[in-house]
Amino acid sequence: MNLSCLILLWIGDQYKALVIGSSGAIGSAFINQLRNDVNCSLVVSLSRTSMPGFSLEDEESINQAANILSVEAPFQLIIDATGALTIDGNGPEKQLIALSSNYLSRSFQINTIGPALLIKHFLPLMDTTNRAIYAKLSARVGSISDNHKGGWYSYRSSKAALNMILQTAAIESARSRPNLVFSALQLGTVASKLSAKFVSPEQCLSADISVQGLMQSLDGLMPKNGAYFIDYQGHNIEW
Ligand SMILES: NC(=O)c1ccc[n+]([C@@H]2O[C@H](COP(=O)([O-])OP(=O)(O)OC[C@H]3O[C@@H](n4cnc5c(N)ncnc54)[C@H](OP(=O)(O)O)[C@@H]3O)[C@@H](O)[C@H]2O)c1
Are 65 and 124 a contacting pair, CB within 8 Å? Predict the structure, then answer.
């Protein structure tokens, strides 16, 4: 059975999906899977190079993309698969001595602030009548309680702050959009531009397997007064 079909069971008829960050390894795996789902009537790709395009560091570009794509609304599924680990050649820091204001702030701009502004501008495009899902690729390293190794200050803390944005948006939306599910997602280690410097391909899970697991995990989520933080096997991750 095509796992992504399961979403249909929740929302009634055909569903429409938007994948933001569709040029990345995970974003493109979502696009492929959704295109192969007969119940997904429309898959819209949005990236820096799509038309319209956007930058996470330019709110007006996000606003414009949302305005243009509003003709396709309502969406029942939005996946934000954007993110960055190495920025302008700077990678994750192992020690406090390596912290730089520039890398810290760019990490927050790309992993926290940009995704928060995406929620602000794209939430109005989501279905309010049927169950709808807003899912954002986070990372297990953004879990404060799971941090036993240290290191990676900027990336970890930008993902932890992202998780707080998702939780807060979910609480606010529960009042006005009771059918909306918010989830932070952890995919496992997948080969991509982002992970290439840090893991060998043999250590990685295939993007297709990870995305298939994430779709199945998302499908089991009920709207609640808060966000989920789950991995591709459907396990809950402590914040
Ligand atoms: N791969 C892993 O093992 C792993 C593990 C845990 C979590 N994650 C998370 O999963 C998500 C997807 O990662 P990935 O592995 O698929 O990485 P990826 O292949 O490098 O994709 C990253 C995506 O983010 C976009 N992006 C980066 N900076 C942007 C900006 N300023 N404005 C607009 N778009 C921007 C990229 O656009 P361009 O193509 O234009 O650069 C691309 O579409 C990220 O949030 C990452 O933190 C990944």
Answer: no
